[in-house]
UniProtKB/TrEMBL annotation:
Span of the signal peptide: 1-24
Keyword Transport (UniProt): no
Organism: Thioclava nitratireducens
Pfam families registered for this protein in UniProt: DUF8173
Domain of life: Bacteria
Span of domain DUF8173: 221-367
Keywords: Membrane, Signal, Transmembrane, Transmembrane helix
Membrane-spanning segments: 224-246, 258-286, 292-314, 326-346, 352-374
Name of this chain's protein: DUF8173 domain-containing protein
Length: 379
């Protein structure tokens, strides 16, 4: 039942997205860097030299071959030309009638695959018809499934009913998950009995809920020390080669710690929110990678700055004053890195402490960039 809910939710999401970008009758067509960004009520992707395709609408048709990946969302989707990379499509009705050079990921209500897939197939729908060869493995979830093609890898099938066509063969293993295992059979022409297993659908959920393997404390210690080493080295380099910048951010954040934490929260929230807003415009998708990069830079940079502030404060607390020489900077940086790593391993609340550190440091960066609090910090 959960599979049906997920399928319908994905289909509704795709239709809602298509409707939102197709509110105007006029189709928006923007080409940039060899990629095509299309949105409208009825969208037809045509033209030469398209690398990656992004298209959303009520009716989406891909009529020209592309050399890269295709990302499609709509109510009715027809892929009538070759996809040179991977295919991602979500909608109500999806008709894949052309070959895909990479993997295909499909979600909707009625899915029909008539084009050869050179990679893996992942298809989830109420009705799924596979009528073309799959060179890789296939994961199919459907209430009603029709398999009438060769699958060169393994097949995992979650279904209520399945129909095997004359052309259905699976070279690898076949795993079927169903609520009615006594009513589902796999003919020997598809795969011999020793490569076939049929399970209750609930066994799939139980398999995912298996206990985690025993903890390897040696590996965890290695990773912990590796994290301390990376953070300590980066903080040391910044303190040695940009001492003025690090000192100003330290003084500004310590002058108003609550303001710094709030600024970090607002800055990160703005960057994360911009990803959603840019994605909603479709055309703005080209800027999403820059927002993601900004989130990573502000998050990691904020943690480094927060660690440096802690280390410099500790260095001063033990009576050594503010770190100035490279040796003192390294001592402060690694001291802060160790404290941050120790906070992380505190049960239940450690993650809150680490979050406070990188929000505080991110706020110091935001305050430095915006110039807020500069006068107070100089006092």
């Amino acid at each position: 039942m959960s599979r049906n809910f997920l399928v319908k939710s994905l289909a509704c999401l795709a239709v809602a997205l298509a409707a939102s970008v197709a509110a105007a009758e006029e189709t928006q067509d923007w080409r940039f860097g060899g990629d095509a960004y299309l949105a409208g009520r009825t969208v037809s992707a045509t033209g030469e030299n398209i690398h990656d395709l992004f298209a959303a609408g009520q009716h989406v048709t891909m009529g020209s071959p592309i050399t890269g990946a295709a990302h499609l969302a709509g109510q009715n989707i027809v892929i009538g030309a070759r996809v040179g990379g991977d295919l991602y499509a979500a909608g109500q009705d999806i008709d894949l009638a052309a070959p895909v050079a990479g993997a295909a990921t499909l979600a909707g209500q009625a899915l029909t695959v008539k084009g050869t897939i050179s990679g893996n197939l992942r298809a989830m729908g109420q009705q799924v018809r596979l009528e073309a060869p799959v060179a890789g493995s296939a994961v199919i979830g459907a209430d009603e499934a029709l398999i009438d093609a060769e699958i060169s890898g393994d097949l995992v099938l979650g279904t209520k009913t399945v129909t095997w066509g004359d052309g259905a063969t699976v070279t690898g293993k076949v795993q079927v998950y169903t609520d009615t295992p006594g009513e589902v059979t796999v003919p020997s022409s598809v795969a011999p009995a020793e490569r076939v297993s049929i399970h209750q659908a609930k066994e799939f959920e139980e398999a995912k809920a298996r206990p985690a393997p025993a903890r390897n404390y040696l590996i965890e210690t290695r990773d912990w020390l590796g994290g301390v080493l990376v953070v300590g080295i980066v903080a040391t380099l910044l303190a040695v080669f940009a001492p003025g910048l690090m000192d100003r951010m330290r003084r500004r954040s310590l002058a108003h710690p609550l303001r710094a934490g709030l600024a970090g929260f607002v800055g990160l929230s703005a960057l994360v929110g911009s990803i959603l807003l840019l994605a909603m415009t479709v055309i703005g998708l080209v800027l999403v990678p820059f927002s993601l990069l900004g989130v990573l830079v502000l998050g990691f940079g904020g943690y480094i700055v927060g660690i440096w502030v802690i280390g410099a404060w500790l260095h001063d607390l033990i009576g050594r004053g503010q770190p100035v020489t490279p040796g003192e900077c390294a001592l402060a940086a690694f001291g802060g890195a160790v404290i941050g790593a120790l906070i992380w391993i505190i049960p239940w609340v450690g993650w809150l402490g680490v979050m406070a550190i990188f929000l505080f440091g991110a706020g110091a960066i935001v305050l430095r960039v915006t110039g807020i609090g500069a006068r107070e910090a100089m006092v």
